[in-house]
Write a structure and sequence with these properties.
By secondary structure, the protein is of the alpha+beta class. It contains four helices and five strands. Helix 3 links the parallel strand 4 and strand 5. The longest helix has 15 residues. The mean pLDDT is 84.
């Protein structure tokens, strides 16, 4: 039986992460990916940010970033932000994304977060159904002010 492992991303995972993020139609981190990876990994265990991967039989098949955000509202309880969720196109439908999101929700709960938020482009209707199936609800209209073209 094949087993998934969810773990912190390492610098050895960077080629797989760049490939996966390219499936989200994002810039493949030209030149800056190593520095960005070090910043995320340098936050410690009960960390402010964690780049996670889903590994199946030694291959990275999914990734996401979990950020714990300090907060003044809600009696000072932090909230969690999930970003850059992607499962390899060839591995979708096997439960990797659900296991990864549930893992991150559990991490956020353990960190005392009062909510977990994520955004998804309006055009990604399949992803929206996936998030709703896991328990996310579309409660807000999201806005973006892009600072770096990409």
């Amino acid at each position: 039986m094949l087993m998934d492992m969810i773990r912190d991303a390492t610098s050895d995972d960077l080629p797989a992460l760049v490939r996966l993020l390219g499936q989200l139609n994002e810039t493949a981190w030209p030149g800056a990916h190593r520095a960005a990876s070090r910043r995320v990994r340098g936050c410690g265990r009960r960390r402010a940010a964690a780049a996670l991967v889903v590994e199946r039989d030694g291959a990275v098949v999914g990734t996401a970033v979990l950020v714990i955000v300090p907060n003044l509202g809600h009696d000072g309880a932090p909230y969690a932000l999930i970003e850059n969720v992607v499962v390899d196109e060839a591995a979708r439908g096997a439960g990797h994304g659900e296991r990864l999101l549930r893992y991150m929700i559990d991490e956020a709960r353990a960190a005392g977060c009062y909510k977990v938020v994520l955004t998804s482009r309006k055009s990604r209707q399949d992803a929206h159904r996936f998030y709703e199936r896991i328990g996310f609800t579309a409660t807000s209209e999201g806005f973006r002010h892009t600072l770096i073209p990409g």
